[in-house]
């Protein structure tokens, strides 16, 4: 049985994800397209098991400017899918068909799934599907992905078309001068296009548009290139417009004629009218920003409080009970004490403390996918863009940075929604400077010991230092590493829609799976290593007192590096090292290493390790230095490169060092 | 009256005459349907004064003022 490859392509916000879920059910798997961090989702189609459906990124055009567009183009041209399923939003048919026309040039058989047809009819408009299909010479199936209507019809058409194995019928929609230019160029490049494995007409069209990757791919002679430029020049002169505008205009003119013939549009769509009413509040001149802040505060409150926090508490209790039971079982089995310690103190404590974050992360992603799927995220970008642009970012980066105050892991994971690679990377680097919730216990411990009367002041200044460093870093990165051109901020504000429960649940499940995989791989190994280092000395003897362990030795060695920052005590530096597994370990490590069991005991022990100034420098260092292993893993995954991930944490730790150094040195002079 | 898109007040609109700029930005504008002879309407300005919200071809788009300045529009009276 041979596998049939089918590509799902369409604009952003046209219900593509919902349709993908409808067509594949829950048997999906996620990967990346080779070489880029563009997500690639695949799944078998229901009732057509031998077909693999690949969800291509949501795009508006096949220009060569974004990685999403290039990926789509390359996938269709190089992987030769048997069929393209092009989803078109019927309520926004003009702009959606623009991509369809370009996809048709790729000479791959195609089916159009005309989505949201129910809304077109409900708004009092209509589309003559049969006529449209005849014009385009492509099967068109009206569907409603959100209401699960027409999906079975679509699947049977997909089955029929995918099995035909014939080349797509070629539709010639160009006219006049453009037509002449495309055809003369097609004639010149035919052999080159065949060798490079591109459909001739697509290649010719791209050359008329001045597409550089295509020029390189065809390996044309200079003579040919000169002739092509001459042809394009005379076309431009005859039309009185340039090459790019000429082709965009040609496609849209053709679409306008189609629409005139097949679409009856007497009313603005209901969805659009509803959206405009909602936006009267949500993007209101004065209320827009306060309402946004209110929504975010509520999400944070619910995530870390009543919903996520409560579930986290329950899960922690559950984990405790399970660990306790396991411990008892191991004791009954009379395993050696080091094995018991490895499993319980090492693995269970390490993995368990990270695992307990699962409810918070799932809850946070529940709300985030509501924001994203409803269409509100685009409004956030619209409202916040101006402020973020000063930092070289765009409005879209705001949400990940906010999530960073909760937890860097989902924050970094959510940068995936950013359309520009440059913005995504910059956001990943600066987001961990937003003090995450796992650092709160550290602040609590230090303020209780040194600044009991100024808790609020210290907390606020620590958060502000994080934000300030993030802003300065963005400005610095904008001028150095990420100089390049940012992707233009030309953003669609989609009509608000009620998110489908299925999509939201699948999204949460995906994130949970991701997180669990991490907890049981990277964190599992890291926990074992840390445990090993703190339980053995360099002669590999099991130590009772951790101050003679390898970790203590390493800590002492590292403490020389930290001496200029005022925390030369080996226990402080060891705590910072174990803090890399999870920030909460800073507190637990210090309490283990000082042999204290009560908070008061810990406070007085800390006073022998730090002075108030060095304690504050310690706080500054903790806010800024490299995030925990889980966040590092997310960074690596989203950046798609270990080298870049290491550079990122090196930068973060370097900044932390410098800031803590300045704070300590100046502070020591003043106090 | 001819003007650039960034100068048009909310509620007003017109017909696009030409799209300037270059590279990725210009291409994106054209791809999103901002081609000459297209009807366009300014519906809103963001709370901080930038970007602007537009209505064209049956959908809603946002553009920064600086990019909108590249688009020449022949202003018409009430477009609603």
Topology, element by element:
The complex is a heterodimer of chains A (671) and B (80).
Chain A lengths: L3 E7 L5 H9 L3 E5 L6 E7 L2 E8 L11 H12 L4 E7 L3 H12 L5 E6 L1 H6 L3 E2 L1 H8 L3 E3 L8 H12 L13 H20 L4 H10 L2 H7 L3 H18 L3 H20 E2 L5 H13 L5 H17 L3 H25 L4 H19 L2 H17 L1 H14 L8 H6 L4 H6 L7 H10 L9 H11 L4 H25 L10 E3 L8 H20 L1 H14 L14 H13 L7 H9 L6 H9 L5 H11 L2 H13 L4 H11 L2 H29 L1
Parallel strand pairs in A: 1-4, 1-5, 5-6, 6-8
Antiparallel strand pairs in A: 2-3, 3-4, 7-9
Helix pairs in contact in A: 3-11, 5-11, 7-8, 7-10, 13-16, 14-15, 14-16, 15-24, 16-23, 21-28, 21-29, 22-29, 23-24, 25-26, 26-27, 29-31, 30-31
Chain B lengths: L1 E3 L8 E7 L3 H9 L7 E7 L6 E5 L2 E5 L1 H4 L2 E6 L4
Antiparallel strand pairs in B: 1-6, 2-3, 2-6, 3-4, 4-5
Protein name (chain B): Fe2+ transport system protein FeoA
GO molecular function (chain B): transition metal ion binding
Keywords (chain B): Iron
Can you characterise this structure?
The complex is a heterodimer of chains A (671) and B (80). Chain A has 31 helices and ten strands. In chain A, the strands form two sheets. In chain A, strands 2-3-4-1-5-6-8 form a seven-stranded mixed beta sheet, with helices on both faces. In chain A, helix 21 (440-450) packs antiparallel against helix 29 and helix 23 runs parallel beside helix 24. Chain B has 80 residues and is α+β, with helices and mostly antiparallel strands. Chain B has a single domain (2-76), classed as SH3 type barrels (Roll), CATH 2.30.30.90. In chain B, 16% of the residues lie in helices and 41% in strands. Chain B has a six-stranded antiparallel beta sheet with strand order 1-6-2-3-4-5. The model of chain B has no long low-confidence stretch (mean pLDDT 91). The chains are: A alpha/beta (671), B alpha+beta (80). Chain A: Belongs to the TRAFAC class TrmE-Era-EngA-EngB-Septin-like GTPase superfamily. FeoB GTPase (TC 9.A.8) family. Chain A: It holds the Pfam family FeoB_N. Chain A: GTP 1 binds at residues 10-17, 55-58, 115-118.
């Amino acid at each position: 049985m041979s596998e049939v490859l089918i590509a799902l392509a369409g604009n952003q916000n046209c219900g593509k994800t919902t349709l993908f879920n409808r067509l594949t059910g829950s048997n999906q798997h996620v990967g990346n397209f080779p070489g880029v961090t563009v997500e690639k989702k695949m799944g078998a189609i229901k009732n057509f098991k031998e077909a693999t459906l690949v969800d291509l990124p949501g795009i508006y055009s096949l220009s060569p400017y974004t990685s999403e567009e290039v990926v789509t183009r390359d996938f269709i041209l190089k992987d030769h899918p048997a069929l393209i399923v092009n989803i078109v939003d019927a309520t926004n048919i003009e702009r959606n068909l623009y991509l369809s026309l370009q996809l048709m040039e790729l000479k791959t058989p195609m089916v159009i799934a005309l989505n949201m047809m129910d809304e077109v009819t409900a708004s009092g408009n209509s589309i003559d599907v049969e006529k449209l299909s005849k014009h385009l010479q492509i099967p068109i199936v009206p569907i409603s992905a959100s209401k699960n209507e027409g999906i079975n019809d679509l699947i049977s058409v997909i089955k029929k078309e995918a099995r035909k194995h014939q080349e797509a019928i070629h539709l010639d929609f160009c006219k006049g001068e453009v037509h002449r230019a495309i055809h003369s160029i097609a004639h010149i490049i035919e052999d080159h296009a065949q060798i490079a494995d591109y459909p001739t007409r697509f290649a010719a069209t791209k050359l008329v548009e001045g597409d550089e990757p295509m020029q390189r791919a065809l390996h044309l002679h200079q003579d040919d290139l000169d002739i092509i430029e001459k042809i394009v020049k005379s076309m431009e002169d005859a039309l009185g417009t340039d090459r790019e505008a000429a082709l965009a205009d040609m496609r849209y003119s053709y679409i306008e004629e189609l629409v005139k013939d097949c679409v009856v549009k007497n009313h603005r769509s209901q969805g659009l009218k509803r959206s405009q009413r909602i936006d009267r509040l949500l993007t209101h001149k004065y209320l827009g920003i306060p309402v946004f802040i209110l929504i975010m505060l509520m999400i944070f409150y619910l995530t870390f409080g009543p919903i996520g926090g409560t579930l986290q508490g329950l899960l922690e209790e559950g984990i405790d009970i399970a660990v306790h039971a396991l411990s008892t079982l191991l004791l009954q089995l009379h395993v050696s004490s080091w094995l018991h310690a490895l499993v319980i103190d090492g693995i269970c404590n390490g993995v368990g403390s990270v695992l307990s974050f699962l409810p918070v992360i799932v809850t946070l992603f529940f709300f985030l996918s509501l924001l994203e799927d409803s269409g509100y995220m685009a409004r956030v970008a619209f409202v916040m863009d101006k402020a973020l642009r000063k930092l070289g970012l765009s409005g879209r980066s705001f949400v990940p940075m906010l999530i960073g105050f909760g937890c860097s892991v989902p924050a970094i994971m959510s940068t995936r929604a950013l359309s520009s690679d440059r913005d995504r990377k910059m956001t990943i680097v600066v987001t961990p400077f937003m003090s995450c919730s796992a650092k709160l216990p550290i602040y609590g411990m230090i303020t209780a010991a040194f600044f009991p009367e100024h808790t609020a002041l210290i907390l606020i200044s620590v958060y502000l230092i994080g934000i300030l460093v993030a802003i300065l870093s963005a400005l610095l990165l904008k001028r150095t590493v990420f100089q390049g051109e940012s992707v233009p901020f030309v953003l669609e504000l989609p009509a608000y829609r009620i998110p489908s429960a299925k999509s939201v649940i699948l999204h949460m499940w995906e994130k949970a799976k991701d997180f669990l995989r991490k907890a049981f791989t990277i964190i599992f190994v890291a926990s074992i290593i840390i445990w090993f280092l703190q339980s053995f000395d360099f002669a590999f003897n099991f130590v009772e007192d951790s101050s003679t362990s390898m970790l203590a030795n390493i800590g002492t060695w590292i403490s020389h590096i930290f001496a200029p920052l005022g925390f030369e005590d080996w226990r402080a530096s060891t705590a910072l090292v174990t803090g890399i597994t999870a920030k909460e370990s800073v507190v637990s490590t210090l309490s283990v290493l000082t042999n204290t069991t009560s908070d008061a005991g810990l406070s007085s022990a800390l006073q022998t390790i730090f002075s108030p100034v060095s304690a504050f420098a310690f706080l500054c260092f903790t806010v800024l230095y490299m995030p925990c292993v889980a966040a590092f893993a997310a960074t690596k995954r989203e950046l798609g490169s270990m080298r870049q991930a290491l550079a990122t944490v090196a930068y973060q730790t370097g900044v932390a060092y410098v800031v803590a150094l300045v704070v300590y040195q100046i502070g020591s002079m003043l106090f | 009256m001819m003007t650039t898109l960034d100068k048009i007040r909310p509620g007003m609109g017109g017909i696009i005459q030409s799209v300037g700029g270059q590279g990725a930005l210009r291409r994106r504008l054209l791809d999103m349907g901002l081609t000459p002879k297209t009807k366009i309407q300014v519906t809103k300005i963001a709370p901080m004064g930038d970007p602007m919200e537009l209505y064209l071809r049956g959908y809603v788009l946002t553009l920064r003022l600086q990019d909108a300045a590249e688009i020449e529009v022949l202003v018409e009276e009430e477009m609603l």
